[in-house]
Amino acid sequence: MTSAYQASASQAGAPQAGPSRRPRLTPGQQAALVLGVPVALALIVVNAFGLVSDIGSGSYPVRFSVPVSGGTLSMSLGGGNATIRATAATAGVAAVPVTGTMNYRLERPTLHQHGGNLSIDCPLWSGGNCTLNAAAAVPAGIGLHLDSDGGDLQVTGGSGPAQLSTEGGDLGVYGLSGNLVAKTAGGDATANSLSGESVSIETAGGDLGGIGTAATDVTVDSGGGDIALTFARAPHDLHVTSAGGDVALVLPPGGAYEVTTSSEGGDISNSVPNSAAPASIITVDTGGGDLSLSESAAGTSNQAANPVSLPSPPSPPSPPSAPAPPALNLPSPPARP
């Protein structure tokens, strides 16, 4: 009896084990959960959307006509790309046919046209991945007025004046004998064999290069990009501004030049002598970039010294290929017993 009472008292005095509790998270662990979980979920959603977009990519051909008014073809591409080629056709046309391809993801966009103004109704689920690649053959004497909200513009040939503007796309102008005003907000520009009375090109940071330039008055401003120009004929007035980019100019030999340079710290290499009776006024300001100014050897006026590496001009759009027929997964015939 006494032993039983003592055992019972001993058990009553012993501490009783309470329910087990989970260890508390540290402040660092709590912060990691609060920040990490949403980020992980967002990455999963973005990657899944990108995969679906890639699978759902498509394209379809477009065809329309743009009117010619006052001898000028005007097109506002709304972000699309345009490739224009001059033809020997009669200049007195009322409209120019345009063909191209609309590329998209997930959901097919709609192209709206009001005269020369084009707009793309790109569905929300496409994530803005809707692009028009347009091409047109234009009579050589017709003027051009093209602008895009970021697409590439390419013009080959033609004798009419051209005004090109894009918000960051690349510019390519080849063999134009009319006057040119071209601007891009950061894209690169390539201008070969231009022979108009006046040429003005601005790139706002992109590189600018060209060979065979024979224009009379030339003004180029890269806004920080590199400039490389080789002249087939001495210009009457040449103004070059790079705002920090390097400049390489090659002039025809034997010209009567008056050269004014400013580099604000950049290196200057100038082998072009000043003439007492100048016929060409050359003004170059690199804003800190290096300057190379030289005369070409006889017969090499179209070869650039220290050329700037520029992208190739965009190719004309090609019609979409027909989709391959779906594969049929047929069951194998049962084996004979």
What does this structure look like?
It is a single chain. The chain has 337 residues and is mostly beta strands. The chain has helices at 2-13, 27-55, and strands at residues 57-69, 72-76, 81-87, 95-105, 110-114, 117-121, 131-139, 143-148, 153-156, 162-166, 171-174, 180-184, 189-192, 198-202, 208-213, 217-221, 227-231, 237-241, 247-251, 257-262, 268-270, 280-285, 291-295. The strands form 2 sheets. It has a 21-stranded mixed beta sheet. The longest helix is centred in the first third of the chain and has 29 residues, at 27-55. It is flat. The termini are far apart.
Describe, in short, the structure shown.
With 337 residues, the chain is mainly β. The protein is 12% helix and 40% strand. The strands form two sheets. It has a 21-stranded mixed β-sheet.
The shape, in one word, is flat
Structural class: mainly beta
Count of beta strands: 23
What's the assembly state of these chains? single chain
Helix content: 10-25%
Low-confidence stretches: 303-330
Series of secondary-structure elements, N-terminal to C-terminal: HHEEEEEEEEEEEEEEEEEEEEEEE
